[in-house]
Design goal:
Layout: H1 2-26, H2 33-58, H3 64-89, H4 91-94, H5 104-125
Helix pairs in contact: 1-2, 2-3, 3-5
């Protein structure tokens, strides 16, 4: 499982850099400052969670079953949060009608928060640690 978490972390980290560069250099002509700021928020949280998952993959004091829970909460959270922000912030450029994704963004945020919360629980509170 550690290899799967590590691989996912590397991929979303790489994509965060690519998307950050795209936002900084390629989208300025097409998006408003507000849309760019929103896009950058998606990139920033994606990178934060890439680093988070790199840590989780290598953390020795966490049971594999707990790593699985943290991984899925964070991974689904990033896809929902950052993914929906990317689609919503670029919808004027792409023509994709994405208003239905509005509720997906906070759900992704809650899942990312839950991944950190579960890590706290699993490392400090579970089994009397």
């Amino acid at each position: 499982m550690e290899k799967k978490i590590l691989g996912f972390a590397i991929v979303i980290g790489l994509l965060a850099i690519v998307l950050g560069a795209l936002g900084a250099h390629g989208l300025k002509k097409f998006l408003s400052l507000e849309q760019l700021a929103s896009f950058e928020t998606g990139v920033r949280y994606q990178m934060y969670h890439a680093l988070f998952l790199l840590f989780v993959s290598q953390f020795q004091n966490l049971a594999v079953s707990d790593k699985v829970i943290v991984f899925y909460l964070a991974a689904i959270g990033v896809v929902f949060f950052s993914g929906s922000i990317y689609v919503l912030s670029t919808s004027s450029m792409t023509g994709i009608k994405a208003k239905f994704l509005g509720p997906v963004t906070p759900l992704g945020g809650v899942l990312m928060i839950a991944s950190w919360g579960y890590l706290l629980y699993a490392t400090l509170l579970k089994n009397g640690n």
